[in-house]
Amino acid sequence: MVSVKNPLASRSKVTLEEVAGQPIIVPRTGFTRQVLDKLFRPFRARVHVAMELPSIGMIKKFVGADAGVSFISESFAKDQVKAGEVKLLSVEGVDLWRELGLVYRRDRSLPRSAQALITLIREHKKLSEHSVPD
């Protein structure tokens, strides 16, 4: 994610090396921070972490103010993209994703809405397991 004022905003794809040359805004802690630290390890000498912030909301505001670039889930940035504050870029050769789990107690009855959600997730999982990758 970059500010629309960032020179990279005119592009749709960038390399990890180009991102490493930008001031980077990262989460202070957590899984995403661990992934980013590992991702940028080869560029350790030139990476400039401009800010470590405690929340996604703050990261989005500072990127929008052109204080640096960051990595964020597309779904978390849709409002800022729609408002024209930031642009999301693809990073060549980098495929970041997060695996989520579904946890519930089988020995307890669940509301219909929860049962419907579980059914929906299971159906989606089955479809994605049988889909052919691009």
Structure in words:
With 134 residues, the chain is α/β, with parallel strands linked by helices. 38% of the residues lie in helices and 14% in strands. It is built from 5 helices and 6 strands; from the N terminus they run ββαβαβααββα. It has helices spanning 16-20, 31-39, 56-64, 74-82, 112-130; strands at 2-3, 13-14, 23-27, 48-53, 86-87, 90-91. The strands form 3 sheets. The protein has a two-stranded antiparallel ribbon. Helix 2 links the parallel strand 3 and strand 4 (48-53). The two termini are 24 Å apart. The model has no long low-confidence stretch (mean pLDDT 91).
List the helices and strands and how they pair.
Blueprint: E1 2-3, E2 13-14, H1 16-20, E3 23-27, H2 31-39, E4 48-53, H3 56-64, H4 74-82, E5 86-87, E6 90-91, H5 112-130
Parallel strand pairs: 2-6, 3-4
Antiparallel strand pairs: 1-5
List keywords for this structure.
134 residues; alpha/beta
The structural class is alpha/beta
N→C terminal distance: 24 Å
Helical segment count: 5
Helix and strand sequence: EEHEHEHHEEH
Strand content: 5-15%
Quaternary assembly? single chain
Helical residues, percent: 25-40%
Mean pLDDT: 91
Major β-sheet profile: 2 strands, antiparallel
Order of neighbouring strands in the sheet with most strands: 1-5
Low-confidence stretches: none
* Shape, principal axes of CA atoms: elongated
From the alpha carbons, calculate the radius of gyration and give it in angstroms: 18 Å
